[in-house]
Write a structure and sequence with these properties.
9 helices, 13 strands, about 30% helix
């Protein structure tokens, strides 16, 4: 019987990171006047996220949003459009150049989609916080429009062509429907939707969080529940990265961070790390905080969906990272070799 969470409170991200002891105590007043710069990718969704963080920071600091600059940085992931990211290095391709700008002082903080952040971070650039997590489910778009029943994936025609750039979504689709023809689909949200609406593809899957932020959620033909389509670790969360020695900026980020998101991301990212997870391994993870307890569900799949291993467990919220690591280690020891890319 599939594991089910009670009705979720979708909220999750990384707790306040430890500052260097040599740094002066951070304070919001220290950032009342100096100009801040936020680094981000230039896609419509990335810019939405950067503006949301900018507005929250401005409110916490009591200053005009326009006094906080947004610096657009083109990343390696943006430049690669002709192949899957798993073939070009995996996680970190959407963050590398932004982190370089953060390290050399061109920007003061970086805003990322948490699912794009590498599992192992540079020691000087921890995750300093995030805003409250958004939806974690995936939306399905169909050439034929809304399905007559709720079983949207089951309703796809035999051999339907489905576009995605995610190995995880591809594996889950193949697990549910081995007959589907899954094809690479890169590009921004509008580009992907156009491929379906013009009839070039029968369907595609997109993150509901991003669609909601762009005002496009109403166009989805179906929403896929997490029972069958577990999200990527960090899905729906916005990660904020900052230099560990920058006490004042870290203090400002702490003032707008969501602790529940921090707990969930700590569990999900530890799970990913234990499995040595990257874009080359289909892995799903979802942690949700209920009171003082964090509940984690995880899955690792073979690329063709033919093999999979799942786990579900819970622990006190302050042991979220330990929970994730333990679940990842258990699956690593028990999952079929094909699901871990070992066979």
């Amino acid at each position: 019987m599939p594991f089910r969470f009670p009705p979720p409170l979708y909220a999750a991200m990384s707790p306040q990171t430890k500052q260097e002891t040599s740094a002066p105590a951070g304070s919001l007043s220290a950032l009342a006047s100096p100009r801040l710069s936020i680094g981000t990718r230039g896609s419509p969704l990335a810019l939405w996220q950067a503006h949301a963080v900018r507005d929250a920071l401005a409110g916490a600091l009591g200053r005009a949003p326009q006094s906080i600059a947004i610096t657009v940085i083109r990343t390696t992931g943006d430049a690669i459009q002709d192949r899957a990211l798993s073939q070009a290095g995996g996680k970190g391709l959407f963050t590398k150049e932004i982190e370089e700008a953060l390290l050399d002082g061109r920007i003061d903080l970086a805003v990322h989609s948490a699912k794009d952040v590498a599992t192992v971070l540079h020691g000087a650039l921890p995750l300093a916080g995030s805003r409250p997590r958004a939806e974690v489910r995936a939306a399905l778009f169909l050439k034929s429009g809304k399905p007559a029943s709720g079983a949207a994936v089951a309703a796809l025609p035999q051999g339907a062509r489905v576009g995605t750039a995610s190995l995880r979504r591809e594996a889950m689709l193949r697990r549910a429907r081995p007959d589907l023809r899954v094809e690479l689909l890169r590009g921004n949200v509008q580009t992907r939707l156009a491929r379906v609406r013009t009839g070039d593809l029968d369907a595609t899957l997109l993150a509901l969080a991003g669609l909601t932020r762009l005002g496009l959620a109403h166009e989805a033909d179906a929403v896929l529940e997490t029972d069958a389509f577990l999200p990527a670790a960090g899905q729906g969360a916005v990660a904020i990265e900052c230099r560990i020695a920058d006490a004042a900026t870290n203090a400002a980020i702490a003032a707008i961070a969501c602790p529940a998101t921090g707990v969930a991301l700590a569990a999900e990212r530890a799970f990913l790390a234990a499995l040595d997870g990257s874009c080359r391994t289909p892995i799903g993870a979802l942690a949700i905080l209920y009171g003082g307890t964090v509940r984690l569900r995880g899955i690792v799949l073979a690329p063709d969906g033919g093999d999979a291993a799942e786990i579900a467990a819970e622990a006190p919220a302050d042991e979220a990272a330990r929970l994730g690591a333990a679940c990842g280690a258990e699956l690593r020891g028990s999952a079929p070799g094909r699901a871990l890319g070992l066979a």
